[in-house]
């Protein structure tokens, strides 16, 4: 008898659905090439460090999210002006746990896959040439296995 659980089987079906049925525009997880200094524990205690301009502490990288996530327009209640820029409302990204598990291995995260989203390296989600800021992170679990991550994100207008 096979040792494959219900969660794994549904995860495979979701990956196939995202790959072949719902595939749309490419979507990227945008990461800094260095940790965010403001999120370091010493910074949260009130200490500051002068930023250096070392080459390894500049720039970012975009990691292609595979399989492509489902993207659903969210509520427009947040549309409006914020800090002088127009807010475009929200989008809900349905991202497969397969991508998150692979990204956790790359980032050296072993315990909680949720840490992929709250890492000091994460800037946001890049979709249709717009950077979306992560507002809410929820996961869907079947048979005690995470199969899908629902990421609610907002974006400001480009200027």
Description:
With 159 residues, this protein is α+β, with helices and mostly antiparallel strands. The protein has one domain (6-156). Helices cover 22% and strands 38% of the residues. It has helices at residues 6-21, 41-44, 97-107, 115-118; strands at 27-32, 60-64, 70-73, 80-82, 85-96, 122-127, 130-142, 145-156. Strands 1, 2, 3, 4, 5, 6, 7 and 8 form an eight-stranded antiparallel sheet that branches. It is globular. The protein starts with 5 loop residues before the first helix and ends with a strand.
Globally, the shape reads globular
Nearest-integer average pLDDT: 76
Low-pLDDT residue spans: none
How many β strands by DSSP?
A: 8
Q: Roughly how many Å apart are the termini?
A: 58 Å
Order of helices and strands: HEHEEEEHHEEE
The number of distinct helices, counting runs of at least 4 residues, comes to 4
Determine Rg (CA atoms, Å).
18 Å
Number of domains: 1
What does the main sheet amount to?
8 strands, antiparallel
How much helical structure, as a percent, in the residues? 10-25%
Q: Which class best fits the helix and strand makeup?
A: alpha+beta
Strand residues, percent: 35-45%
Keywords:
single chain; 159 residues; alpha+beta; 4 helices; 8 strands; globular
Secondary structure blueprint with pairings:
Blueprint: H1 6-21, E1 27-32, H2 41-44, E2 60-64, E3 70-73, E4 80-82, E5 85-96, H3 97-107, H4 115-118, E6 122-127, E7 130-142, E8 145-156
Antiparallel strand pairs: 1-2, 1-6, 3-5, 4-5, 5-8, 6-7, 7-8
């Amino acid at each position: 008898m096979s040792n494959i659980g219900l969660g794994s089987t549904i995860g495979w079906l979701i990956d196939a659905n995202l790959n072949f049925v719902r595939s749309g525009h490419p979507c990227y997880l945008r990461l800094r090439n260095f940790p965010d200094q403001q999120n370091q524990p010493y910074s949260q205690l009130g200490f500051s460090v002068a930023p250096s301009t070392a080459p390894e502490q500049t720039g970012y990288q975009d990691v292609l999210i595979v399989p492509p996530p489902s993207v659903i327009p969210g509520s427009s209640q947040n549309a409006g002006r914020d800090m002088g820029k127009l807010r475009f409302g929200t989008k809900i990204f349905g991202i497969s746990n397969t991508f998150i598990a692979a990204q956790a291995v790359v980032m050296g995260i072993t315990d909680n896959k949720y840490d992929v989203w709250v890492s000091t390296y994460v800037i946001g989600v890049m979709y249709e040439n717009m950077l979306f800021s992560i507002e809410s992170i929820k996961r869907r679990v079947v048979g005690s296995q995470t199969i899908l991550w629902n990421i609610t994100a907002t974006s400001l207008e480009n200027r």
